[in-house]
């Protein structure tokens, strides 16, 4: 790959939103997620977007600060990577530089930011007393001896340039690529250890070893849309298939109603998801191509239904008679790439894992040297249908000749989310009780 890469003229744009979880509102906790992108206009390439989910364990009582450090440092480091690349550099060299530099540099900068914050704001007696009240003296000693635990967070990030896309992930959360035909893929390689609500973390020992990267050259069919979300969003759905349909729904609305409609309704969509679903903080970033072809809404000459307003998308009434079939999602579709998915990580000691458990967790298998902490939402989930972003058509109902030419308003597909029973919900992140020595 010694030749200069082919450069595309496609423009990419980013929007996003982070909302405080319903359980955090009830318990008085802050939003522990964070989101950032560069440039601030959201226009690229180059375009960098980062999302972080701060752990909700009582031991991670400063994770809202830790998640903010995570997105700030990640965006800054990737900016430096892009700025330092000659125009004629080969993609193989770019890939190697990203693999060798980014994981360790992100973790190192995050730790430096945490240490600086601790020097300026040492743990207060009230913070440690509150932790001891909730989890006992052993938890207090654990955080005192391992202060990074108080700031624990995940990190997910994407860099889009005119020659390649770089995906990066540490911990749980989701990155989805939506192809122009509606096929959904997960570009980042999976981590088999992230089961039963366990997650890796920036505060883990040798966290850089757990970072997963994917380098995709821009040729062939490119994604029309890329989504980055904290795990609070996917956890609001009854299964993964229902969650994946969100990508197609958002792409449909972008085509038919435009980005302004998506941006205007995004806070309501995410607030509805946390209230009727996970109860956790939810963050969603949307990266989309400017050349997405618009799809005109079908219009019926004798329709008397007024055109839909931007803020009415989420509130439009359901109709059991007009529920269309969702677009077919091909989970086996793969993104074409020149270099393939690789991991920059050499074999090292097993990573530490963070566990999130439901209120009545099954017996946990002991995994060594992985160490797990408990976290329990107060109430088990029950399934209930909840509306998510989707557009369908209504059957026109003419009433007068004056209104005959007015187009019908689209109806929304049903998406089933998890519904918790009444009662406060606990935050959904937990960390190990102890760590290896740094």
Structural features:
438 residues, alpha+beta, Phosphatase 2c, domain 1, six-stranded antiparallel sheet, five-stranded antiparallel sheet, 15 strands, 27% helix, disordered C terminus
Structure at a glance:
With 438 residues, the protein is of the alpha+beta class. 27% of the residues lie in helices and 18% in strands.
Under the CATH scheme, the architecture is 4-Layer Sandwich
CATH level 1 class label: Alpha Beta
Overall pLDDT score: 75
The H-and-E topology, N to C, reads as EHEEEHHHHEEEEEEEHHHEEEE
- Overall structural class, as computed from helix and strand content, comes to alpha+beta
Classify the beta-strand content into a percent band.
15-25%
- Give me the oligomer status: single chain
Approximate shape: globular
CATH fold description: Phosphatase 2c, domain 1
Low-confidence segments, given as residue ranges, are 299-351, 353-388, 390-414, 416-438
Total number of β-strand segments? 15
- First and last CA, distance: 39 Å
């Amino acid at each position: 790959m010694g030749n200069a890469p082919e450069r595309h003229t496609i423009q990419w744009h980013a929007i996003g939103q982070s909302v405080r979880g319903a359980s955090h509102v009830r318990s008085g906790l802050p939003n522990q997620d964070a989101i950032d992108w560069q440039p601030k206009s959201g226009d690229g390439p180059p375009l960098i977007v980062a999302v972080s989910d701060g752990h909700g364990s009582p031991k991670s009582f400063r994770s809202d600060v830790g998640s903010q450090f995570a997105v700030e440092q990640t965006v800054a480091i990737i900016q430096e990577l892009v700025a330092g690349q000659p125009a004629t550099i080969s993609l193989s060299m770019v890939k190697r530089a990203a693999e060798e530099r980014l994981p360790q540099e992100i973790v190192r900068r995050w730790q430096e930011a945490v240490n600086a914050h601790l020097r300026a704001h040492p743990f207060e007696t009230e913070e440690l007393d509150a932790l001891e009240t909730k989890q006992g003296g052993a938890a207090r000693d654990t955080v005192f001896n391992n202060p990074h635990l108080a700031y624990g967070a995940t990190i997910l990030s994407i860099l889009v340039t005119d020659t390649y896309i770089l995906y990066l992930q540490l911990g749980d959360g989701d990155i989805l690529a939506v192809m122009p035909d509606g096929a959904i893929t997960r570009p980042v390689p999976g981590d088999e250890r992230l089961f039963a609500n366990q997650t890796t973390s920036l505060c883990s020992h040798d966290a850089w070893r757990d970072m997963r990267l994917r380098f995709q050259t821009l040729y062939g069919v490119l994604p029309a849309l890329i989504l980055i979300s904290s795990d609070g969003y996917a956890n609001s759905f009854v299964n993964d298939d229902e969650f994946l349909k969100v990508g197609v729904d958002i792409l449909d609305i972008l085509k038919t109603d435009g980005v302004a409609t998506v941006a205007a309704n995004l806070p309501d969509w995410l607030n509805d998801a946390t209230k009727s679903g996970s109860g956790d903080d939810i963050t969603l970033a949307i990266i989309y191509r400017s050349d997405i072809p618009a799809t005109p809404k079908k219009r019926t000459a004798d329709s008397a239904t007024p055109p839909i307003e931007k803020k009415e998308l989420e509130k439009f009434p359901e109709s059991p008679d007009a529920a269309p079939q969702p677009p077919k999602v091909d989970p086996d579709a793969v993104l074409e790439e020149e270099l393939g998915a690789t991991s920059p990580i050499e074999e090292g000691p097993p990573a530490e894992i963070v566990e999130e458990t439901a209120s009545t967790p099954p017996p946990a298998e002991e995994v060594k040297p992985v160490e797990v902490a408990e976290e329990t939402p107060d109430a088990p989930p029950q399934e209930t249908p909840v509306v998510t972003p989707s557009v369908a058509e209504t059957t026109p109902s003419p009433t007068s000749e004056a209104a005959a030419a007015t187009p019908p308003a689209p109806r929304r597909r049903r998406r089933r989310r998890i519904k918790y029973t009444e009662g406060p919900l606990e935050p959904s992140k937990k960390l190990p009780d102890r760590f290896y020595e740094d």
